[in-house]
């Protein structure tokens, strides 16, 4: 799907991400959050590690009915001690 960034999103530099994949127990409220328009990756701290998500060119409706840019899970890393 092509990038359908709205003029408001382009002006504000702010988009909302929907994180897909990864651990099924990541809470819904952590799967949707603001990201910068240029952010290609998201590193989510989660249970002693990080869940890594990469941006796609796809959009989905959010839980509130608003459009979200999809970021898909790619890997997990552990926090070094």
Tell me what you see in this structure:
By secondary structure, the chain is mainly β. It has 2 helices and 5 strands; from the N terminus they run αβαββββ. It has helices at residues 7-12, 28-31; strands at residues 14-20, 32-36, 41-46, 49-61, 67-78. A 5-stranded mixed sheet has the order 2-1-5-4-3. Mean pLDDT is 82; it is low at 5-11.
Keywords, separated by commas or semicolons:
5-stranded mixed sheet, 2 helices, mainly beta, globular, 81 residues
Please write out the topology.
Elements: H1 7-12, E1 14-20, H2 28-31, E2 32-36, E3 41-46, E4 49-61, E5 67-78
Parallel strand pairs: 1-5
Antiparallel strand pairs: 1-2, 3-4, 4-5
Percent in helix:
10-25%
Please state the overall shape, judged from the principal axes of the Cα atoms: globular
Please provide the ordered H/E string of secondary-structure elements: HEHEEEE
The side-by-side strand order for the widest beta sheet comes to 2-1-5-4-3
Tell me the number of helical segments per DSSP (H or I, 4 or more residues long): 2
Beta-strand residue fraction: over 45%
Summarize the structure.
The protein has 81 residues and is mainly beta.
